[in-house]
């Protein structure tokens, strides 16, 4: 695959992924630009040697988002909620969901975004996040519980039919 084709296919999804991870439009654009720049620089290796250059680029972008978060937190001694929603593209979830995502711990938010918006399976999420599949499942479970409370969703109760 040529890099130009890869860029066209990957860039919009990568921007959305980074935005939902950071909830900061400029940080998302910066991380996407840097990740795609690194992919272009190393395209001979990434495009040829990697079976999935999109996964490689996604991992780089998420690492850049995490590094930015750490840098901001250490410089300003911020609370865990360092990002705010500046604006949102039309294809993103409603503002209440964005705010609820913003209140999740970073790793839970990453798991939710990768699993539900990037449509990755647990194994692919684990690879992108650099954690075990069990850890991803735990982050997803806790995130779903917190989101249900944040969004006022009723608890899910399964009805068991008696024989």
Outline the fold blueprint.
Elements (H helix, E strand, L loop, with lengths): L2 H20 L2 H17 L1 H7 L3 H24 L18 H8 L3 H12 L4 H8 L3 H18 L13
**Helical content class:** 55-70%
Structural class: mainly alpha
User: How many structurally independent domains?
Assistant: 1
According to DSSP, the number of beta strands is 0
For the record, what CATH class applies?
Mainly Alpha
Describe what is shown at a glance:
This protein has 163 residues and is an all-alpha fold.
Structure description:
Helix content is 70%, strand content 0%. The protein has eight helices and no strands. It is globular, with a radius of gyration of 17 Å. Mean pLDDT is 81; it is low at 78-83, 85-89 and 156-163.
What distinguishing features does this structure have?
163 residues; mainly alpha; 8 helices; globular; disordered C terminus
């Amino acid at each position: 695959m040529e890099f130009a084709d890869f860029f066209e296919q990957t860039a919009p999804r990568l921007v959305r992924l980074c935005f939902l991870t950071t909830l900061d439009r400029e940080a998302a654009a910066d991380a996407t630009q840097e990740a795609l720049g690194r992919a272009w620089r190393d395209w001979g290796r990434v495009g040829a040697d990697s079976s999935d250059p999109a996964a490689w680029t996604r991992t780089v972008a998420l690492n850049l988002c995490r590094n930015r978060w750490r840098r901001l937190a250490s410089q300003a001694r911020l609370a865990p909620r360092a990002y705010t929603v500046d604006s949102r593209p039309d294809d993103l979830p409603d503002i209440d969901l964005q705010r609820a995502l913003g209140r999740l711990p970073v790793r839970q938010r990453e798991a939710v975004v990768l699993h539900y918006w990037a449509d990755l399976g647990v194994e692919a999420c684990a690879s992108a996040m650099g954690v075990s599949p069990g850890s991803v499942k735990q982050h997803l479970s806790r995130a779903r519980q917190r989101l249900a409370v944040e969004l006022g969703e009723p608890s899910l109760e399964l009805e068991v039919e008696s024989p």
